[in-house]
C-alpha cells in the first residue's frame, strides 16, 4: 500500500529540479505523479463548488468514438439545472443569466445532463419552476438555447430529465387550470417547435414506446429524453429510455436520489449514499456497462440548504469536495472508479467538472 502523503524528499527533489534547470523537463514515476495529483485535488477541493466558469469543455464529446455507448461515458450534470433565483432554499446553480443563459454557461463548461422542472401556464405552455418560484425562463428558452449550442457543437449530445413540478401543495406551485394535460403540451412542443423537432432524439419522445440507450454516434447533435416524471415522481407514459421504467420519486434501480438531508450533520450520510451508489456500478463483474446510472449529489431541507449540502457547512464536508477528492484517490484507498456515470450536482465547480471528464480519456 502506497501512502497518499507526498514525502519531503520527493518535494525537495521536485523543487531542486525546477530551480536548477532553465527549461526543466520533469518526468516523475507514475506513482509519484499520482501522489502529486491527489495532493493537488485536496488543495483545490474548494474549486469543486461554485466555480463553473473556470471549466471550458464545449466539445469534449467530439474526441469520443461513435461506437461508445452513452452508458460508458462519465457525464457531469446539474440538478434543478435552472434554479437560480428565490433564495438559499431554492437556488441550486450559479446564476449566469435569465432566459436559459445559465444553461448555456453550463453547456460551455461541459455539463451534458439536465434536470428541467416545468409548470403548466397559459396558452398551453411550460414555464421553468423550482417549487413555487419561477426561474425567469420558459421551456422555449431551454429548447432554443440548447438548439443554438448544438448547432455550433454538433458532435455533442444532451441528456434531459423532465419533471412536472407542481403538486399544488404548500411550497410548491399549481398548474394553471383550463389547459391541456402535461403530456399533451409536451407533445405540442415536439410537433410545433422547429427547434424541438431538430434537437430531440425522436425515439426518446414517443409516449407509447421507450428507447434503448443509444451509442454516441446515433445521437450527436440531439437531446435524449431520459424520462418524464409526474409531480410526485412516478414515470409518465413510456417517454424516455426503457431502462428507466422504474424511475420514481427518490431511488430506483439505476437512480440514487436521496434528496432529503434533514440537517447539516446528515450531509455525511448523503455523501455516503452518493459514494456507495458510485461504487455499486464500478464493482467489476456486477457492473453493467450497457446501463446508464444517475447519481444525484444534491439534497436539502429547511435545516440543510442546497449550497450547504454541495459545498459544506459547520465543518462538515460537502458532497462536491468529497467527490473530487474521492475521484483522485487510488485503489490503495478504495476500489477503482473507471466511470462516474451521470452525476447530477448542485453548484458544480470547474475542477470537479474537468475531473469527471478525465475518466473519458480512455474511450
From TrEMBL:
Keyword presence, Metal-binding: no
Gene3D superfamilies: Phosphatidylinositol (PI) phosphodiesterase
One Pfam family, short name: PI-PLC-X
Annotated GO MF terms: phosphoric diester hydrolase activity
InterPro entries: PI-PLC_domain, PLC-like_Pdiesterase_TIM-brl, PLipase_C_PInositol-sp_X_dom
GO biological process terms on file: lipid metabolic process
Keyword Nucleotide-binding: no
Protein's name in the database: 1-phosphatidylinositol phosphodiesterase
Signal peptide, first to last residue: 1-20
Keywords from the UniProt entry: Signal
Domain Phosphatidylinositol-specific phospholipase C X, first and last residues per copy: 64-228
Amino acid at each position: 500500500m502506497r501512502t497518499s502523503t507526498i514525502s519531503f524528499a520527493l518535494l525537495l527533489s521536485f523543487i531542486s529540479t525546477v530551480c536548477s534547470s532553465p527549461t526543466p523537463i520533469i518526468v516523475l514515476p507514475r506513482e509519484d505523479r499520482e501522489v502529486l495529483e491527489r495532493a493537488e485535488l485536496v488543495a483545490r477541493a474548494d474549486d469543486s463548488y461554485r466555480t463553473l466558469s473556470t471549466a471550458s469543455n464545449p466539445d469534449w464529446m467530439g474526441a469520443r468514438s461513435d461506437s461508445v455507448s452513452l452508458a460508458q461515458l462519465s457525464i457531469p450534470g446539474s440538478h434543478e439545472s435552472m434554479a437560480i433565483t428565490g433564495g438559499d432554499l431554492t437556488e441550486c446553480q450559479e446564476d449566469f443569466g435569465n432566459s436559459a443563459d445559465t444553461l448555456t454557461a453550463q453547456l460551455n463548461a461541459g455539463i451534458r445532463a439536465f434536470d428541467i422542472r416545468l409548470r403548466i401556464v397559459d396558452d398551453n405552455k411550460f414555464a421553468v419552476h423550482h417549487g413555487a418560484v419561477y426561474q425567469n425562463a420558459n421551456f422555449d428558452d431551454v429548447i432554443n438555447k440548447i438548439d443554438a449550442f448544438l448547432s455550433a457543437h454538433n458532435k455533442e449530445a444532451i441528456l434531459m430529465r423532465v419533471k412536472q413540478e407542481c403538486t399544488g401543495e404548500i411550497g410548491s406551485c399549481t398548474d394553471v387550470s383550463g389547459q391541456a394535460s402535461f403530456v399533451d403540451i409536451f407533445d405540442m412542443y415536439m410537433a410545433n417547435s422547429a427547434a424541438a423537432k431538430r434537437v430531440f432524439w425522436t425515439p426518446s419522445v414517443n409516449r407509447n414506446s421507450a428507447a434503448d440507450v443509444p451509442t454516441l454516434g446515433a445521437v450527436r447533435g440531439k437531446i435524449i429524453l431520459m424520462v418524464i416524471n409526474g409531480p410526485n415522481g412516478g414515470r409518465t407514459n413510456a417517454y424516455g429510455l426503457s431502462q428507466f421504467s422504474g424511475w420514481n420519486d427518490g431511488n430506483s434501480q439505476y437512480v440514487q436520489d436521496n434528496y432529503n438531508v434533514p440537517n447539516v450533520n446528515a450531509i455525511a450520510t448523503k455523501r455516503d449514499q452518493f459514494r456507495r451508489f458510485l461504487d455499486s456500478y464500478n464493482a467489476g463483474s456486477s457492473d453493467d456497462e450497457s446501463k446508464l446510472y444517475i447519481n444525484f449529489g444534491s439534497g436539502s431541507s429547511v435545516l440543510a440548504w442546497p449550497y450547504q449540502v454541495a459545498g459544506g457547512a459547520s465543518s462538515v464536508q460537502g458532497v462536491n469536495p468529497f467527490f473530487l477528492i474521492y475521484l483522485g484517490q487510488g485503489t490503495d484507498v478504495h476500489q477503482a472508479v473507471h466511470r462516474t456515470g451521470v452525476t447530477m450536482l448542485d453548484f458544480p465547480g470547474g475542477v470537479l467538472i474537468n475531473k469527471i471528464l478525465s475518466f473519458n480519456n480512455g474511450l
